[in-house]
Amino acid sequence: MFFFSNSDIEYNEAYTETDNLLKIILSYNVLSEYDILRESQVLKVNNKNKPSNQTDKNHYRKAKSRIQNHLSYKLGQALIENSKSIFGYIRIPYVLSYIKDKHKFEQKAYEEKIKENPNLALPPLETYPDYNEALKEKECFTYKLGEALIQASKNWYGGGYIKFAFKDVPRLKREFRKR
Predict the structure, then answer these.
(1) Model confidence over 37-60: pLDDT tens digits?
(2) Burial (0-12, 13-18, 19+ Cβ within 10 Å), 135
(3) What highest taxon heads this organism's lineage (predicted)?
(4) 144: part of which helix (H) or strand (E)?
(5) Phi, psi of 53 (to 5 degrees)
(6) Is the pLDDT higher at 40 or at 153?
(7) Four-point Cα dihedral 57, 61, 63, 69, nearest 10
């Protein structure tokens, strides 16, 4: 003869509810992965059927986004965004370190993908239709500020950051005010 207390029954009900919830979550993840794979297959089929002279909407504006994905641009953007408050100035070293590490990780992942499948390599910037706009983006204040910061970090032991703060930043501000 078995004896069950109310707490055992409640525990079993909670366990089965958790187990059911886990099954639902896992099945949802599997279904969503299936949906993603299915959509990618449909896109591949649609791309094969598309005429080659038709412009690809995703291809447009990619050169500019690739420039904005450079480390120089990301660092410059972070410097500008965080220089608007005292708290931002305190956060700058942490934010810059995070951006640098994240960028390095993304670059490693890209390199590994290229090693596995060389067809995934991005084409040269010159081949994009918005290449001239991307060149303008390379000349913007954000990109130049990030480049100056990278140069300062390469010469940190020789006062690179001090030179950056008191010489490079004011020089860049003067140059871009004139434009």
Answers:
(1) 455 554 554 555 554 444 445 555
(2) middle
(3) Bacteria
(4) helix 141-154
(5) -80, -10
(6) 153
(7) -110
Q: Residue 169 has which token pair?
A: 């930043």
Q: Is pLDDT larger for residue 139 or for residue 55?
A: 139
| Residues 98/104, Cβ–Cβ less than 8 Å | no
Helix (H, G, I), strand (E, B) or coil at 123: coil
Report the length, in residues, of the chain: 179
Tell me which amino acid residue 167 is. Answer: K
122 SS3 class: coil
The pLDDT assigned to 88 comes to 95
Quick one: pLDDT at residue 58? 54
Tell me the DSSP string of 38-89. HHHHHHHHHHHHS-TTSPPTTTTTHHHHHHHTSHHHHHHHHHHHHTTSHHHH
The band of 158, judged by pLDDT with boundaries at 50, 70 and 90, is confident
